[in-house]
Amino acid sequence: MTRAVPELSLAEFNEGSASARAAFSAELMRGLQDYGFVVLRDHGVPASLLEAAYASSEAVFALPAATKRTYAAGMRGYTPFGVEHAKDSGQPDLKEFWQVGHDSGADPTGTEGFEDNVWPSEVPEFQTTISALFDRLNNTGMVVLQALAPELGLTTHWFDDKVRWGTSLLRILHYPPVSSDTPDGAVRSAAHEDINFLTLMPAARGAGLELLDRDGSWLPIQADSSTLIVDSGDMMARLTNGVIPATTHRVVNPSGPNVSRYSIPFFMHPTLATSLDVLPSCRSHAPVPSPITAGELLDERLRAIGLRK
Fold first, then answer.
1. How many other C-beta atoms lie within 10 A of the C-beta of residue 285?
2. Pairing relation of β-strands 37-41 and 7-9?
3. Relative to the CA of 217, which of 52, 190, 211, 304 has its CA 20 to 30 Å away?
4. pTM of the complete model
5. C-beta separation of 234 from 270 below 8 A
């Protein structure tokens, strides 16, 4: 039988009976353990907002290269084509991107040190739509973690205060058409695992996303444009001692029309001080690694992919 990433309805958790909520939680856990990915429908993020976000993103990446480079400002704003690479990869990824997070004054604890977001004056609607999408995905991610928590022996809201004002980032990605002088072995996004707890990604405008299945084969991820794709990252794997693994995935070069691809993943991070010490329910799964904070793991991974010196 052909394997396919499971598709779940978040309304079953948000609006369902106690038994429906429990069933959703179990299916979510099973999907993340078996595939590392699930597809969510009925997630509450308006289709109109997704369409507006993609439209404004295309307009931003269509700006002249020199204009875009004026907005390169560290972890927020623009990152030019060819800067990031997968951990241990010898080739840069074939992409450019823009990142936004919580506004610099939004942290009520004053401990996260959020950078200022950077917005292109040439496309004013970009700020409006991307800010709204960030907030929606942050709220949706919290709900997904609330659904996952009981499967890990935690109270429903255990993750809430750890992620509500975390260092989460919304990354707006553009993969241009692959040029004829692309180095051998370079791909749109080389095989990697995400760093964070969870990634929530509105289904991309363009094919190419694949996960490394448990049998070692690459499995294309098919998802309707109205859905969100959810996967688990390194921080979740560390917290759960591999009970929920971080699944390797990639974006391959186009096999059909050589056109641009756009995607907008939301990387849900906890606060920097959050301990990733293994949960009590996961300590018998494998040898327990030494304690580490989310900030320490984030710094380690950012250095490994070329986004921090």
1. 13
2. parallel
3. 304
4. 0.93
5. no
